[in-house]
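hi! just following up on the protien thing from before. the input was this:
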Amino acid sequence: MNFAKHIFFVLSIANVGFVSVLRGQSTDCVTKILELENQMTIEQFEVGKRATHFKYVMRTEDWEGDRDLSTVEVYRNRNNLHLFTERADMYVDVRNMYMVLKPQRSIIVSNTPENVLEHGYNDDFKQLRINFLKNCIIKECRKVKGEENLKALKLEVGEDIEGLIAIHSMTYLYNEAESKIVSTLVEYETDYKIKFMEIEYVEFEPSISYTFKKPDQYVANGKGILHSKYQGYQLTDERD
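and the predicted 3d structure came back as:
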């Protein structure tokens, strides 16, 4: 998975909600998770100098034991998106996407992919999760030992879609007192390249004050000269 696709993948996780029902298996845990997920779903993003802000830590491990840890912070509204990680920054508006790849000391400029901002990067992954929820089996719903307000809900794929998706199970950890999801653990089937992915939710603010400038202003001055922190970077323009 190249880094650009990886970024779009992690973005899809942070602002997607569940809108389905679990085949009649209504439990307090499931009802609460659906409620909390819907609270984290943005159906209509802000405009102007307002943004939705979220921050999370993503841990992954493949079947060879290689691990990756990344902290992701995102600001976005209807027409703009800023994403920051340890390895890359990304500035997007309706026309242009500037991706700063720090280890490679490279800046890639491209046209903003069609419908990216309109759909919020999440449609495909959202549908996958909805299908999972519609056909999952509740394996456990329990209080976490030693943690007064934490509950864990583990779900496994149902036989109706077994073999059709790569996910084996999902485990949600959530805080009842604070009404928030703490983390999500996704475990994959053995024929998938990733063994597991864990998302720890750090911050979620549906609407904050935030100013978006044109993407190019974050990397260069009005004459096209790169800002001092990007001196020595190679800029590649892939726009049509």
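The chain has one domain: 3-237.
Residues 74 and 145 are 33 Å apart (CA to CA).
cheers
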